[in-house]
């Protein structure tokens, strides 16, 4: 994370700042470190990819580091499939940042990026070929009705602003979902097939609303509403740690 802020925002990161940030992180999100969640490794991989890419674009490190961008971007996507869109954003950033150097350099850098991706995604391709007869580099998963789980999760993201897990006795359900205001602007689930084409059609129809929704999600992702993903009393004041 210090590398990310130093590379992207050119902040001068001091040792005391790292310790202070770590202390706040462990205080506000302390419960999240008690469980083997994929959130932190995936976020770490994504921030590493963005930080290294930013440093490369600013000529702070050599172009060979583009291989590491591919490694970390692919790792983030492999750990948390929801980061597939982030993978595409990184490729777009590379195209915009490197296109001024000419087509040959652009091809070279994308080749290095794909080499890095291969270290992570090629083993997944081999697994999918052997056991599922598929050449996909993604972790294969389907929902209960055989719908692609990645598309289902993207649609969940459009309709749900925040999700908590209840393990207490004062609420009848384990899942505690907070509806996103955007949910009222998209068709009902039963009338809209959950696939990537329909997902992007929604984005094209209401791009500003989707952008605002993603901003809310980014804020909710770092908002320590409760210091643990498994809440015993969801009616307790969130600031009462």
Q: What is the element string, with H for helices and E for strands?
A: HHHHHHHEEHHE
Helix fraction, binned, reads: 55-70%
In terms of per-residue confidence, which ranges show pLDDT below 50 for 5 or more consecutive residues? none
Mind describing the biggest β-sheet? 3 strands, mixed
Strand content: 5-15%
Number of strand elements: 3
Strand order of the largest sheet: 2-1-3
Overall domain count:
2
Radius of gyration, in Å, reads 20 Å
Characterization of the model:
With 241 residues, the protein is mainly α. The chain folds into 2 domains: 2-132, no CATH class; 149-231, no CATH class. The chain contains 9 helices and 3 strands, in the order H-H-H-H-H-H-H-E-E-H-H-E. Strands 2-1-3 form a 3-stranded mixed β-sheet. Strand 1 (160-166) and strand 2 (175-179) form a beta hairpin. The longest helix is centred in the middle third of the chain and has 30 residues, at 103-132. The model has no long low-confidence stretch (mean pLDDT 83).
């Amino acid at each position: 994370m210090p590398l990310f802020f130093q590379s992207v925002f050119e902040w001068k990161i001091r040792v005391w700042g790292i310790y202070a940030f770590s202390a706040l992180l462990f205080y506000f999100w302390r419960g999240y470190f008690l469980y083997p969640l994929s959130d932190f490794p995936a976020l770490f991989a994504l921030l590493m990819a963005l930080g290294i890419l930013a440093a490369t674009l600013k000529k702070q490190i050599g172009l060979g580091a583009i291989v590491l961008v591919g490694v970390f971007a692919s790792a983030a996507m492999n750990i948390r499939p929801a980061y597939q869109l982030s993978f595409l954003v990184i490729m777009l950033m590379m195209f915009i940042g490197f296109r001024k150097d000419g087509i040959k350099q652009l091809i070279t850098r994308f080749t290095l990026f794909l080499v890095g991706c291969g270290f992570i995604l090629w083993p997944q391709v081999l697994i999918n070929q052997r056991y599922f007869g598929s050449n996909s580099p993604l972790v294969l998963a389907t929902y209960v009705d055989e719908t692609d789980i990645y598309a289902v999760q993207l649609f969940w993201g459009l309709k749900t602003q925040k999700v908590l897990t209840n393990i207490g006795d004062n609420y009848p359900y384990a899942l505690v979902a907070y509806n996103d205001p955007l949910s009222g602007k998209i068709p009902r689930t039963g009338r809209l097939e959950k696939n990537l084409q329909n997902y992007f059609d929604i984005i094209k129809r209401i791009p500003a609303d989707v952008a605002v929704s993603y901003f809310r999600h980014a804020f909710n992702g770092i908002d320590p509403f409760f210091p643990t993903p498994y809440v015993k009393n969801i009616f307790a004041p969130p600031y009462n740690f």
